[in-house]
# Entry
Amino acid sequence: SAAREVAFTKPIIVVKAGRTEAAAKAAASHTGALTGSDAVMDAAFRRAGVLRVDSIEDLFDRAEVLGKQPRPRGPRLGIVTNAGGPAALAVDCLVGGGGELASLSPQTLAELDRALPAHWSRGNPVDVLGDADEFRFAQAAELVLRDPATDGLLVVLTPQAMTDPLGTAEKIRDLARNAGGKPVLASWMGGTAVEAGLACLNEARIPTFPYPDRAASAFNDMWRYSANLDALYETPEWMEGAPTPAGGGPAEVQQIISHARQHQRVILTEYESKAILAAYGIPVVEAWPVFSEDAAVAAATKIGFPVALKLHSETITHKSEVGGVRLNIRDAAEARAAWHAIRRAVTDKVGEHHFLGVTVERMLLSEGIELILGSSLDAQFGPVLLFGAGGRWVEVTRDRAVGLPPLTSTLARNLMKQTRIYPALKGGRGQAAVKMGALEGVLVRFSQLVAEQRWIKEIDINPLFVGAERMAALDARIILHDASPEAQLPAVAIRPYPSRYTTSATLADGTPIAIRSIRAEDEPLLQRFHHTLSDQSVYQRYLTVFPLEQRMAHRRLARLCFIYYDREVALVAIHQDSPTDEPELIAVARLHKAHGQNEAELAVVVADRWQRRGVGSRLLAQLVVIAREEKLVRVTGVFLAENAGMRRLCEHAGFKIRRRPGEQICEVTMVL
# Structure
């Protein structure tokens, strides 16, 4: 959370050993510390806006480019060169690393055609040929940089008979001063022959590289870092059911888990596992447990053929490995045969006591894709999420991405984009696209389940069937922690949404309001809220003039909404006349915890038309309750001495008020 606070304004670059198993063991044996899963470490860095590199050389290269040049808006690079071979190496590195070779517009190509000799490359990379002087270099570079299809420019120079390394560097220096926010990189090859040009470029804060592939690699990290930061501050879509579960929620899940633990079980049945998923609003194919051959036939007949029969066991999780799955059962006779086949297979392989019966499920006949969605424990980061291609061959395809819970819709989408199966979800080759919004919702609610239910050690949905019309968990397994004290159970690295702080209140005039913690999706509500504030309310809140356009800046509001709940408490008061009406954010109250201290500073602001109606007092009272629960020792704040309303609020809540000598500022303090 500390890294994310500064990453947008000051790049954080990390080189960490331990990508390979051998390196991880070496690090552990040397330091005595766990290195943790490398994939999980990458996920943590992405979530915090940190750029990870592979070598010390990369560390200094990235520090130079991010310190000297603006971040690119996208992955499209334009290349201008006087030698085709080095440019081809740069392209290989660029495309192999996920970047794109910019497709120049017809207008740019036409202008280049007029400016360059007849034998130029007629595309990107723009080869200005070996006899190019500094003027030809500069003209081509300007045209490429000006093209809207480019997000950055790489100029590659090799010393040839007509080449002027210093003169070309001076032209590129002048061009970079008006680059329109695009980064300019340079690769001056030739060692001592190009030293004067390198000095000129470095003095102009243009990063230089001895080889063009290193420059292309640096550009890839630049745009990826920029895209990751933008994603962190992208406003998620409002998603009903998150953070409040759409199903029975935590209470129902606790009953299922408590029942299993009372019977000293750590493996939940498929029926129990699916009930937990359904409680969090995750669609499932319902499983009917039956304990006799006749009951299996009756259940299959009631559900309607075709059906699937699966082993019902409290000790076996991977049913297919013991012959415990029979699919596409089309009549009663096949159902009886499947019962006996499953019982016989389980008995032969692991013993009859593992067979309790079967579950009967409807077969899904529509076309779709099988995914896996799961969670397991990491030694350093606690519960982590896994998403990817699922089905029987999940261990073979190994198409998966790892993330940290909890997720927003934006984080869920970015997690899916890291997999090879993602393009298939968007449709093609005669298959309709999956409803991505619904799938994002499943991931968000699943991450909420993982974050809230600490007794769950491992959970797998495999396969999670997704199609154009429906999606459902076809199979699920959950393993609980053993009988460890609850206080010792692993916690998620990122604190989940504090649903327990959600409450409701009725104002003196009978108006109902809801009070809850702020969430990333609240940015549109916060924008409308700022439009309702008078200049006086703004001045009293911020103790200075704060223009609306500055308060409304997306990056500012995103950082105010997308908070880390272990570092800050932010409550919003919401009024909504009816469930179909647009909710209105009418007040915000915050407790910002001081770094390294067990205290926090408060702030409250109420929309003008809701002032003097009791909204502020209810928010402040809830803040005090939360401060005690968070075990803070002191809450402080400041307000203008002329702000009589804030004085009344603080006095009523029990704060001590002291006016600063010689100033128009009052300080408030409450020792908890």
Remarks:
- The radius of gyration is 30 Å.
- The longest strand covers residues 456-466.
- Confidence is low (pLDDT under 50) at residues 26-36, 241-246.
